[in-house]
Structure to design on (164 residues):
C-alpha cells in the first residue's frame, strides 16, 4: 500500500504532466534559426554585410631570407642575389623580428629546413603577404595594420602597405 506522501507526489506529477522539455527553449531556438536564415538570404540578395575576397594577381614578388646575425641583429637578404635589403639592430624592425619568430616556430613544428626562403608578394588588390616556401604557410600582413604591412612592402622596394 503506498504511503500518503508518495500518493501526494504521484498526484502532483499528474497535474504537472510528464517531465517535458520547456517550450520557450524550442521557440527561442526556432526563432534564432529563422532569423539567421533570413539574415543570410538578405545578405546574399543585397550584398549588405557580405565580405567577398576578390581574386587578385601578384604585382611584385621577391624571395627573401630573414636571419639573426651576431648581436641579435635581423638581416633581410634577397634570396636570389644575396644582396642585403635591410639590417635591423636590436631595437628596430619589431614586426619583421616578430614574424621571423612565428615562422621559425612553424618550421620547428613542421621539421622544415631553416634556410629556405620566404616569399614576399604584393597583390593587385594592394594586399601584402608573406609565405614560407618550406611549410606553405601564408600570412596576409595587412591584417596586422598598415604600418606593419608597409614594413614588408618596403622590402619589395614599394612604398606603403596599401594600393596607391
Amino acid at each position: 500500500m503506498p504511503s500518503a506522501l508518495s500518493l501526494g507526489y504521484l498526484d502532483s506529477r499528474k497535474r504537472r504532466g510528464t517531465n517535458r522539455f520547456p517550450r520557450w527553449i524550442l521557440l527561442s531556438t526556432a526563432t534564432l534559426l529563422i532569423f539567421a536564415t533570413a539574415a543570410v538570404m538578405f545578405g546574399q540578395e543585397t550584398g549588405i554585410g557580405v565580405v567577398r575576397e576578390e581574386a587578385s594577381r601578384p604585382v611584385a614578388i621577391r624571395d627573401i631570407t630573414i636571419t639573426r646575425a651576431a648581436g641579435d641583429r635581423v638581416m633581410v637578404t634577397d634570396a636570389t642575389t644575396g644582396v642585403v635589403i635591410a639590417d635591423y639592430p636590436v631595437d628596430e624592425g619589431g614586426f619583421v623580428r616578430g614574424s621571423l619568430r612565428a615562422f621559425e616556430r612553424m618550421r620547428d613544428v613542421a621539421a622544415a629546413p631553416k634556410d629556405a626562403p620566404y616569399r614576399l608578394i604584393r597583390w593587385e588588390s594592394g594586399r601584402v603577404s608573406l609565405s614560407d616556401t618550406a611549410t606553405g604557410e601564408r600570412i596576409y600582413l595587412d591584417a596586422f595594420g598598415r604600418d606593419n604591412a608597409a614594413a614588408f612592402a618596403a622590402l619589395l622596394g614599394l612604398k606603403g602597405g596599401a594600393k596607391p
Residues 159-164 have pLDDT under 50 and may be disordered. The first helix runs from residue 4 to 16. The radius of gyration is 29 Å.
